């Protein structure tokens, strides 16, 4: 691998870590210096991701026509268990890396209002950023799990120390829910690891999985030499390599043996992983930590929570659940899609019932992320004899685009709520009104971001939702109709909120004297989000171009698995059932 690419990819994780360590030597009294240095570190993470996105460097730029993993970093970490520091970028992870770097930079700009324990806040903030980047870069399941856990403690303290009146309750609830999901993920991780067997893979499959080892001289072994050593049991046969686990799940039967209650290892692994990931999404009924965490968290942390952390659940489903456990995904298609639709409907109705501005936006995230779960569930869409790979592709691309669009609009909505909260110190929707006359620029930008969240055509929220609804039609017209109807509920709570806050009668709440137009710092944060909301809505290909090759390849792989493995299995079961019926006929 090119040394420049090696350095840049690893810097996305280690730059925030080094920045956090350097901050420890800064004087606590100089709050301005602490803030500016932390903002500079987040900029050092954002700039390389933008550099990769643009075609400026043959060694580093993202190849949009390349379906596999790019800019791979692979270093042996714990050789006895085949655990590696294995990083890489593809069309699924790269858009989310861009989103993480951007939202983290803007949220740090929104952190100027944090005035208590600024040094500790900045250190935890940078550690959180390192963990988030690590999750999207990791291709070793053990490493993925470590970064997943690394995010837990910084977010716990960022809510519990700098949050609102019920911050301890919200932080503990967030911690317990996430930790419960992490335990389930760890169980699934161990199940897959101890049942994996690299000897079952061919040389080509090992090469596709980027399986790597080094000889005594430090030279990288070829896939043929590695295969020979694994077959001779000179190297570990179990692996945490996510790409290798995908190959094992789709091309071997190592995860198909029955574990409990007639269900296979991969079936249970899928269920455990899905629960862990939908807690983070979050989906009904495991969503209750989110409104409390959002309401109590400070504005910049709410931006990161909605803009990035929720997307990690969807990323885990598309990266790990379906490619490694396709048989379970196929069997549980109705379960997954139903969770998505229920979350969409419940979140929308719950948002309608809120009088707290921030809580309303929090429940809107539950509803909008339901589209993500539904679109990913359609990846295994079959209904009777229907087998439609086009719907698979449309569903997963719609879900990924929805994650990006929601990351932009939700971060913007939470920031706009925070702007007015900093002025009037309350979020009661019934006490607002008439802000358009007092804050016209702020109101215009806020309305654009809220309309993006609504899914208005021409803005970033529309494309993903439409793709998801279209993709589910062949699976179930009923689910598609319900998903489409949720747009009406979304319009209801968004328009009602706009009417009560920005239009309507004069402002009726306290601290009226504090209402002033948005300042330059706040505008510098809101403006990029507004621009992206329009650009992604009008030119969605700017994001799809990164996703297409990777998603198409994964869909093709799962189509091949379905045609070669699942459909013959179903036909054999049907023939067996017909024979039993014929044998028992009078």
**Could you spell the SSE succession in H and E letters?**
HHEEHHHHHHHHEEHHHHHHEEHHHHHHH
Mean pLDDT: 89
Residue fraction in strands? under 5%
User: Percent range for helical residues?
Assistant: 55-70%
SS-based class = mainly alpha
Task: Give the overall form.
Answer: globular
- What's the oligomerization state? single chain
Q: C-alpha Rg, in Å?
A: 24 Å
Strand order of the largest sheet: 1-2
Query: Tally the helices: what do you get?
Result: 23
Largest sheet: 2 strands, antiparallel
Q: Low-confidence stretches at least 5 residues in length (pLDDT < 50)?
A: none
The total of beta strands comes to 6
Termini separation (Å)? Answer: 70 Å
List keywords for this structure.
ND/Mrp_TM, two-stranded antiparallel sheet, NADH_Q_OxRdtase_chainM/4, mainly alpha, membrane, oxidoreductase
Topology readout:
Elements: H1 3-23, H2 31-53, E1 70-78, E2 83-89, H3 94-109, H4 118-137, H5 141-150, H6 152-162, H7 167-195, H8 203-208, H9 223-231, H10 242-251, E3 258-260, E4 263-264, H11 265-280, H12 289-296, H13 299-324, H14 326-331, H15 333-352, H16 357-377, E5 382-383, E6 386-387, H17 389-424, H18 435-438, H19 440-454, H20 460-471, H21 477-501, H22 520-538, H23 541-584
Antiparallel strand pairs: 1-2, 3-4, 5-6
Helix pairs in contact: 1-2, 1-4, 2-3, 2-4, 3-4, 3-13, 3-17, 4-5, 4-6, 5-7, 6-7, 7-11, 7-12, 10-13, 11-13, 12-16, 13-16, 13-17, 15-16, 15-21, 16-17, 16-20, 16-21, 17-19, 17-20, 17-22, 17-23, 19-21, 19-22, 20-21, 20-22
Family: Belongs to the complex I subunit 4 family.
Protein name: NAD(P)H-quinone oxidoreductase chain 4 1
EC number: 1.6.5.-
């Amino acid at each position: 691998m090119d040394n420049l690419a090696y350095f840049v990819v690893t810097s996305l994780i280690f730059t925030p870590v080094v920045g956090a360590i350097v901050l420890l030597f800064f004087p606590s009294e100089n709050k301005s210096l602490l803030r500016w240095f932390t903002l500079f570190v987040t900029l050092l993470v954002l700039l390389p991701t933008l550099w990769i996105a643009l075609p400026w460097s043959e060694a580093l730029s993202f190849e949009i026509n390349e379906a596999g993993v790019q800019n791979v970093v692979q270093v042996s970490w714990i050789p006895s268990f085949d655990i590696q520091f294995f990083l890489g970028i593809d069309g699924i992870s790269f858009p989310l890396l861009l989103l993480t770097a951007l939202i983290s930079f803007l949220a740090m700009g929104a952190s100027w209002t944090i005035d208590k324990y600024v040094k500790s806040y900045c250190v935890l903030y940078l550690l959180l950023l390192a963990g988030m980047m690590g999750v999207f870069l990791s291709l070793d399941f053990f490493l993925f799990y470590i970064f997943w856990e690394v995010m837990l403690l910084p977010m716990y303290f960022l809510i519990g120390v700098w949050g609102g009146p019920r911050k301890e309750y919200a932080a503990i609830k967030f911690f317990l829910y996430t930790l419960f999901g992490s335990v389930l993920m760890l169980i699934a991780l161990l199940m897959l690891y101890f049942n994996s067997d690299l000897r079952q893979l061919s040389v080509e499959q090992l090469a596709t999985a980027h399986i790597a080892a080094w000889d005594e001289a430090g030279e990288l072994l070829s896939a043929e030499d590695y295969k020979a050593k694994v077959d001779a049991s000179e190297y570990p046969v179990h692996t945490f390599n996510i790409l290798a686990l995908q190959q094992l799940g789709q091309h071997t039967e190592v995860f198909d043996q029955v574990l409990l209650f007639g269900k296979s290892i991969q079936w249970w692994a899928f269920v455990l992983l899905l629960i862990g990931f939908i807690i983070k999404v979050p989906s009904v009924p495991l969503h209750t930590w989110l409104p409390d965490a959002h309401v109590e968290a400070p504005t910049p942390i709410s931006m990161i929570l909605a803009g990035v952390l929720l997307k990690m659940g969807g990323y885990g489903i598309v990266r790990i659940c379906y490619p490694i456990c396709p048989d379970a995904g196929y069997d549980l298609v109705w379960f997954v899609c139903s969770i998505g639709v229920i979350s969409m409907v419940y979140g929308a109705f719950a948002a309608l019932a809120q009088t707290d501005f921030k809580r309303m936006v929090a429940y809107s995230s539950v509803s909008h992320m339901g589209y993500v779960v539904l679109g990913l569930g359609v990846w295994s869409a079959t209904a009777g004899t229907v087998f439609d790979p086009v719907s698979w592709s449309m569903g997963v691309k719609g879900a990924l685009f929805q994650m990006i669009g929601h990351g932009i609009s939700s971060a913007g909505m939470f920031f706009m709520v925070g702007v007015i909260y900093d002025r009037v110190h309350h979020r009661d929707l019934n006490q607002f009104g008439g802000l358009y006359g007092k804050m016209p620029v702020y109101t215009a930008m806020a309305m654009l971001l809220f309309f993006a969240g609504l899914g208005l055509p021409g803005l970033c929220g529309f494309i993903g939702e439409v793709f998801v609804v279209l993709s589910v039609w062949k699976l179930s017209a009923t689910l598609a109709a319900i998903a489409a109807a949720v747009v009406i509920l979304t319009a209801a709570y968004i328009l009602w909120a706009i009417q009560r806050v920005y239009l309507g009668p004069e402002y009726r709440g306290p601290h009226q004297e504090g209402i002033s137009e948005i300042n330059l710092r706040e505008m510098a944060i809101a403006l990029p989000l507004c621009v992206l909301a329009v650009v992604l809505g009008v030119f969605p290909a700017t994001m799809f171009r990164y996703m297409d090759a990777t998603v198409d390849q994964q869909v093709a792989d799962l189509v091949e698995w379905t045609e070669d493995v699942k459909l013959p299995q179903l036909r054999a079961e049907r023939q067996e059932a017909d024979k039993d019926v014929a044998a028992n006929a009078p």
